[in-house]
Amino acid sequence: MPLGPAPGAAHDRRTPQKKRAFRQSELAGVVFPVAHKQSPLHPDFTGRASIAGVDYWVMGWAKKKRDGQRYMTLRFKRRLDAPRAGAHQWRSRTEEELAAWRTRYNERQRLK
Asked: What's the domain range around 39?
């Protein structure tokens, strides 16, 4: 089956519309799920927001209360400039921070 316009149909000769740059609305933001987390410490959601004319990176972690109710914690980091492709945005954790996190994580898992 051939692709394209039907035989005899008029071709659309309009020039393609130029893509407009995305502009975030004021006091609004968007987050998307992270497909492949490299560490349990990395956020479950990332995105961006605009607050008082300042652009922010938004990071969100999905959590669950002991009673099963789900919620999300958010962190905002001011966007100074766009990150380089492949740039690592997360600082390295010290061994003490990782040990403390593992202890808290294991305790939460035990309480589930």
From this structure: 22-81
Q: Is residue 64 part of a domain?
A: yes
Burial class of residue 47, CB neighbours in 10 A (0-12, 13-18, 19+): middle
* Strands of the chain, DSSP E: 28-33, 45-51, 54-64, 70-78
Per residue in 26-45, pLDDT (tens digit) is 788 889 999 888 888 999 99
Question: Is residue 74 classed as helix, strand or coil in its secondary structure?
Answer: strand
Q: How far, in Å, CA of 28 to CA of 56, rounded?
A: 10
In whole angstroms, what is the distance from residue 61 CA to residue 47 CA? 12
DSSP 3-state assignment of 91? coil
Pairing of strands 45-51, 54-64: antiparallel
pTM for the model stands at 0.51
Task: Name residue 73's beta-bridge partners.
Answer: 61
Q: Does residue 15 fall inside a structural domain?
A: no
- Cβ(55)–Cβ(48) under 8 Å? yes
